[in-house]
Amino acid sequence: MTKSLKVYSFLLILVYLSIVFSILSISLVSFSPIFFIGIALVVIGIFQDFKNKYLPRIVVNTIAVLSVILVFAASFNITALFDFAKNIIITFLGIKSLEKKQPRDIYQILILETMCMGIVGVATTDIKFLMMLIMWVFLSIFIFLTTNIFKSLKDEILTKYHIKLISYAVGLISISTVIIGFFIFLAMPRIQSPLLNIGIGGISNTVGFSNTLSPSNATNVLENTSTVFRIFNIKGNINLKDAYFIGETLDYFNGISWTHKHRAKGPKVIKGNIVSYDIMIEPSYDNILFGILFPHKVKIYKSPIKAYITSDNTIRTNKPITNRTVYRVWSYVTDSYKQNLMNMNRFLQLPQNIDPSIVKLAEFLKAQNKNPIKAIENYFKQENFKYSLSNKASKNFLYDFLFKYKTGNCEAYASSTALLLRLMGVPSRVVVGFHGAIYNKDGHYFFVTNSLAHSWVEAYYDGKWQTVDTTPADYTQTIPKLSKARMFFDYINYLWDINVVYYSSARQKYLLESAVKHIKAIATHYPKYVAYGLFVLTVFYLAFNRILLMFSIDAMYKDICKRLKQPDIKYCTPEHVPDFIKENGFKNFFDIYIKAKYSKYGIDKKEKKLAKIYYNDTIKAIKEFSGSVNRQLSKDT
Question: Rounded CA gap, 164 and 141, in Å?
Fold first, then answer.
């Protein structure tokens, strides 16, 4: 198949593969309908190139101008320049597709694709960007080398030798690029915060958390196992598998849903075991962060975004979280804290038209037990209430939940508990966040998924805000179990985030100091092993060169020429070497080398084996000739 494929056709296939890859890459993280303009132009370009029929230049120029004008009119916005940039780059890729591909055009396409990968890098810091980048580097190097071969061969037939030569070069350059890039990444000076903390959208994380609550169907959230945040670098004693992560407090109830309107006012005193921990949160496009009950201090790493603790012990930011963000929290681990509540009536607010049966239930429970919290907890247990992921549709939901169905999700329990407490004269509010965390054995960290979203109640009783969770404890059995593969891939993402996305100057300094310290220690205490290591590296280097000579005729030729310079032979052709070397292998080797390099069809396996034999014969002849010359010089002196 490759014998009938021309160099230019092969180059076109690679170019269009790279264009399609670039469009797919940027579409996966930030798709825009305006991309269809560029995609349509690419399709026309493919048809033109492979039919070898091209539109007149004036038509191409007209299409290009109209396309750019259309993109400007549809998407130019000074406040969203990255959205406009991705649209215009895809459009330019389409415009370049309409032209007959000369080397200059291909280099311009590669530049546009480089810009595409830059946009992808801004839109996402996920590990998938690394995979896209590696694939694009490999493909672009392949195109660059093929373009340079095309300059020499033009419309000649592409041979297997050419493809192998390009493949070896691509592999070597790609691996070298990755290795060099890795060391540059380690050594380059780090900045304390991103230069551009913008984020242009992309595939956002669907967080199973909302700053409003209504006892409605939450199955789509509670069955979602995507990661919301990870917890690591934990200092202090805490059982994260049973910890509550507070997000928002909801104090206003209109009979249907709970929302946040007021914060608790008054001096407070929180006591408990102090724990500190790092949290890496996925983009939520909200101003809310999460912390273990009860957070009292927060610090965001490497970001211009500021975070602070509210009087309700929730964590807020001055800007939405549009990128993956790492922050540290210090919390008091306790289920209650004292406060001299000065706006108590705000947390006793009741909706109009409460069902009389609910009011009577509250009065009954209050009479049954002096402790209203215990009274409600006992009621749910004694009446055998059950947990379910979804709530049954109802016009009067709380009545049906309390007296008819007696089954529902955490929203139903939290909403009815807070309402009953208020009817009993106890200030209360609903809290939404997450309950529990999953331990990842591969990475030794915890993470929280959407399926752990939860709501509970804080009741102000006996001068203290107390955590009240009336949801049946067995609700955790409904949380989806995660497979080992899911855990492993989360660990891979975690490694990428910690070691690449949040590779800080402090971590860089630590790694460099550790490396120097360990190298010195090894050199001091194990000098023999250092010598053995250098010996092994030397042997490996020599073996690698030998293997390279075995598989590359070009490398054999260069080695012969290098050796021929020793006896002062200036030109590396049969006409310019002594007859002894010429007749003992070199002429035959040179003929095969010329055929391999310049023939349309390359060489076959038999000729490749002969080239190795002639190479070895030539080396022997050079050694013998050099020895005879040296002996003659000795006699003359």
Answer: 14
User: Residue 302 and residue 280: Cα distance in Å, rounded?
Assistant: 12
Q: What is the pLDDT of residues 91-125, one digit of tens each?
A: 899 898 988 888 888 999 999 998 888 888 777 76
Q: Which two tokens stand for residue 127?
A: 């590990």
Q: How far is residue 37's CA from residue 90's CA, in Å, rounded to a whole number?
A: 8
- H helix runs in 52-126, sequence order: 57-75, 81-97, 103-123
Other Cβ atoms within 10 Å of 104 Cβ, number: 10
Please give the pLDDT value at position 228: 92
| pTM for this predicted structure | 0.65
User: Residue 531 and residue 417: Cα distance in Å, rounded?
Assistant: 73
CA distances from 446 to 240, 449, 475 (A): 8, 10, 20
Question: What percent of the chain has a predicted confidence (pLDDT) above 90?
Answer: 33
Residue of 550, 561, 543 lying closest to 612 (CA atoms): 550
The amino acid sitting at 585 is G
What's the pLDDT tens digit per position in 384-421? Answer: 999 988 777 777 888 999 999 899 889 999 999 999 99
At residue 614's C-alpha, the angle toward residues 610 and 620, to 5°, is 150
The pLDDT value recorded for residue 220 is: 47
Would you say the C-alpha torsion 391, 393, 396, 402 has a positive or negative sign? negative
- Distance between CA atoms of residues 349 and 360, nearest Å: 18
Which tens digits make up the pLDDT trace of 154-169? 666 777 767 777 777 7
What's the DSSP call for residue 451? G
Q: Is 476 exposed, middle or buried (0-12, 13-18, 19+ CB in 10 A)?
A: middle
Q: 499: Cβ–Cβ under 8 A, 6 or more apart, which residues?
A: none
Distance of CA 602 to the CA centre of its chain: 43
d(CA 496, CA 133): 14
Could you tell me the CA-to-CA distances from 262 to 251, 347, 348, 379, 490 in Å, in that order? 7, 9, 12, 30, 38
Q: What are phi and psi of 453, to 5 degrees?
A: -60, 140
**Please, what's the largest Cα pairwise distance for the chain?**
126
Task: Using the structure block, give the residue that is written with the tokens 């946009």.
Answer: 119
Burial level of 445, CB count in 10 A (0-12/13-18/19+)?
buried
437 vs 240: CA distance, rounded Å? 6
Contact assessment for residue 461 and residue 433, using Cβ atoms and an 8 Å cutoff:
no
- Residue 526's SS3 state is coil
